[in-house]
Amino acid sequence: QVQLVESGGGLVQAGGSLRLSCAVSGGAFSSYDMGWFRQAPGKEREFVAAITWNSGNTVYADSVKGRFTISRDNPKNTVYLQMNSLKPEDTAVYYCAAGSFRGMVIPTTAVRYALWGQGTQVTVSS
């Protein structure tokens, strides 16, 4: 059974940084394309960033471009989201997700991802 476990969330002041991690177990991590999504209270889950299985391509939401960086370490079965210059509007529960889209454009819609973590809370104070 594949499990995704996020960590690294917390409370940070605006302008600060956090690094989220998502450890994957029970599956062939190096074959998965990985994504980060977030969901704020009362809002739909939205795409944040994604990375292909071989780190050959990354995609970002416009709202985080230039501030967030997604990366992965296949030997460690972990994907990361480095978040800099955080804003109060970045406050949300952040989820990592896995899918297999090799040879296709990385999707930015949540329904395309088959596997999900439980989420980690990120709160940015003003």
What topology does this entry show?
Layout: E1 3-7, E2 10-13, E3 18-25, E4 33-39, E5 46-51, E6 58-60, E7 68-73, E8 78-83, E9 92-99, E10 115-116, E11 120-125
Describe what this molecule looks like in 3D.
With 126 residues, the chain is mainly beta. It has strands spanning 3-7, 10-13, 18-25, 33-39, 46-51, 58-60, 68-73, 78-83, 92-99, 115-116, 120-125. The model has no long low-confidence stretch (mean pLDDT 96).
Short description:
With 126 residues, this protein is mainly β. It is built from no helices and eleven strands.
Major sheet size, sense and barrel closure:
7 strands, mixed
Q: What is the CA-based Rg, rounded?
A: 13 Å
The coarse overall form would be globular
Structural class: mainly beta
Please tally the β strands and state the result: 11
Per DSSP, the total helix count is: 0
Mean pLDDT: 96
Key attributes of the depicted protein:
single chain, about 130 residues, mainly beta, 7-stranded mixed β-sheet, 4-stranded antiparallel β-sheet, about 0% helix, about 50% strand
